[in-house]
Amino acid sequence: MANKNYTKQIINDYCVLDTETTGLSSYYDEIIEIGILKVRDNKIVDRYSQLIKPDYEIDSFITSLTGITNEMVKEMPAINFVMSDVLSFIGKDVIIGHNTSFDIRFLNAGFNIELDNKYMDTMQFARKLFPELKHHRLSDLTSYLGLSNNEHRSIADCIATKELYDSIKDTMTKRGLGIQDLWVKSNHGGKGIDIKSIHPTEVEIDEDNFFFNRHVVFTGKLEKMIRQDAMQIVVNLGGILDNSVTKSTNYLILGNNDYNAILKGEKSSKHKKAEKLKLEGQDIEIIDEFTFYDLIES
């Protein structure tokens, strides 16, 4: 089911949003930094940046990834104290980000609201325009296009995302492409998917979904469905199932029991390996069961 607020436009007035968080689950993890740029006529006219104090300590893995320490946030406001400023800054603008639904899920959870702003995702545009790239992370694209590529912090990522959107618009103009040229439905039969007895049951696969052509590994017991059914959904979305975490893995999906163990300081061998690979620069994300359900419905 597509998100009713997701849009695809070429615009010059918008807000760029990025968040840094304690993990990838909007159910269990928290925002530790928010960055926003206000853009008018393609120019940055204002910016908002705020560190946030989470309820729980920041894990050493997240500090290694973002550079944000517990010392840096100990005197910062809690998320509920910045809601008014953030919502006032964004107003009714279209929100642009890189994997924007991630940031919006965290804002919705942190503020306990449902943002009704339209939003766009530069990652989806980039996948269409630059299919020659193996990965489409913000760091991959800024390096490929020669854009700003600073530290992994909210405002720096916002600036890089804004430059990426400018480059996307320029590339579309140079190639004579419109929105309708990028999103043309195509049929696929799940080529390259082969794990045990799980085969695609869908003929038409939406290339815009999160799991298309992505390597996925499951670990731990799922609460809401049996693993076989979850694997079938991934395959039907064009995903590629693997049994173990490798350098090819894009998503490690943790059953909720595994994610709850993290809160007690326990991590499985698969989880530890995934974190190690991510710190080494691999394109891998670790998500919990509920976030998985959000992604397959978005």
UniProtKB/TrEMBL annotation:
One of its GO terms (biological process) is DNA replication proofreading. The keyword Hydrolase applies. SMART domains: EXOIII (SM00479). GO terms for cellular component: cytosol. Pfam families: BRCT, RNase_T. PROSITE patterns: BRCT. GO terms for molecular function: 3'-5' exonuclease activity; DNA binding; DNA-directed DNA polymerase activity. Residues 206-298 form the BRCT domain. InterPro entries: BRCT_dom (IPR001357), BRCT_dom_sf (IPR036420), DnaQ (IPR006054), Ribonucl_H (IPR013520), RNaseH-like_sf (IPR012337), RNaseH_sf (IPR036397). SUPFAM superfamilies: BRCT domain, Ribonuclease H-like. Keywords: Exonuclease, Hydrolase, Nuclease. It comes from the Bacteria. NCBIfam families: dnaq. This is BRCA1 C-terminal domain protein. It comes from Peptoniphilus lacrimalis 315-B.
